[in-house]
Design goal:
heterodimer, A: six-stranded mixed beta sheet, five-stranded antiparallel beta sheet, 54% strand, B: mainly beta, four-stranded antiparallel beta sheet
Chain lengths: 114, 118
C-alpha cells in the first residue's frame, strides 16, 4: 500500500462547477499537507499548504484536512478552464527531523470544459 | 518564495551519453532535492543534495548513475549518466524552506528539464 493515495482521474467538469480533489494517507505522523498544480510541460506550483487538521481558504480554493480519517481535500469553487491541470497532493511529518522529504500522491488530471 | 532556475529546459540526447542539469536558487537554502517525473507519473525523489557532504540517494537510485554536486548553498547539479531511453523524463529540483521562514518559502520547484533519450 502506498503511503499516499490519489485518484489519478482524469476528472472532467463543466465551467463553474465545484471540484473536489482528494487524497488519503496511511502515516499518522504527517502534519503538513500541500497541494500543487502542474500545467502541462511546467514544474509543479505550490497552491496551498495546511498544518494539522482544519480548513484553509484562498480565493476559490479551500484545503481541508481530517487527520482522524487520514483524508485531505482541495475544493475549487467556480472552476475555470484555466484550472485545467494536474493537481498533486504532498505531505510530510516533521520537516527538519525527517530530512525534509515530501511524499507525493499520484496526481489527478482535471479538465474544466467551457 | 525561493526562485529556482533550471538549465537546460529541455534536451534530446543520444543513448550512452551524459547530461548535467543545473539548479540555481536566488537565496541560500539548506537542502536541495532532485526529482524525476516520468510521463504521466507523479514525482519520485532521486536524492537530497547537502552542501558540504555526499548526496543522500533514495532506494533505486545510485550515485554512479545520478552523480550530484552541491558546491555552495545556492547551486546544485544532477548528472544523468550513460543514458538510455528509460531515462526520458522530466527532472526537477526543489528546496527545503529555511528555518523560521514560512513553509511555502521553500518546497517550490524549478520549471524542470525535459529529457528525451534517443
Amino acid at each position: 500500500q502506498k503511503e499516499v493515495e490519489q485518484d489519478p482521474g482524469p476528472l472532467s467538469v463543466p465551467e463553474g462547477a465545484i471540484v473536489s480533489l482528494n487524497c488519503t494517507y496511511s502515516n499518522s505522523a504527517f502534519q503538513y499537507f500541500m497541494w500543487y498544480r502542474q500545467y502541462s510541460r511546467k514544474g509543479p506550483e505550490l497552491l496551498m499548504y495546511t498544518y494539522s487538521s482544519g480548513n484553509k481558504e484562498d480565493g476559490r480554493f479551500t484545503a481541508q484536512v481530517d487527520k482522524s480519517s487520514k483524508y485531505i481535500s482541495l475544493f475549487i469553487r467556480d472552476s475555470q478552464p484555466s484550472d485545467s491541470a494536474t493537481y498533486l497532493c504532498a505531505m510530510i511529518g516533521g520537516i527538519y527531523n525527517q530530512g525534509g522529504k515530501l511524499i507525493f500522491g499520484q496526481g489527478t488530471e482535471l479538465s474544466v470544459k467551457p | 518564495s525561493a526562485v529556482i532556475s533550471q538549465k537546460p529546459s529541455r534536451d534530446i540526447c543520444q543513448r550512452g551519453t551524459s547530461l548535467t542539469i543545473q539548479c540555481q536558487v536566488d537565496s541560500q537554502v539548506t537542502m536541495m532535492f532532485w526529482y524525476r517525473q516520468q510521463p504521466g507519473q507523479s514525482l519520485t525523489l532521486i536524492a537530497t543534495a547537502n552542501q558540504g557532504s555526499e548526496a543522500t540517494y533514495e532506494s533505486g537510485f545510485v550515485i554512479d548513475k545520478f552523480p550530484i554536486s552541491r558546491p555552495n548553498l545556492t547551486f546544485s547539479t544532477l548528472t544523468v549518466s550513460n543514458m538510455s531511453p528509460e531515462d526520458s523524463s522530466i527532472y526537477l529540483c526543489s528546496v527545503l524552506p529555511p528555518r523560521r521562514q514560512p513553509l511555502d518559502y521553500g518546497y517550490t520547484f524549478g520549471s524542470g528539464t525535459r529529457l528525451t533519450v534517443v
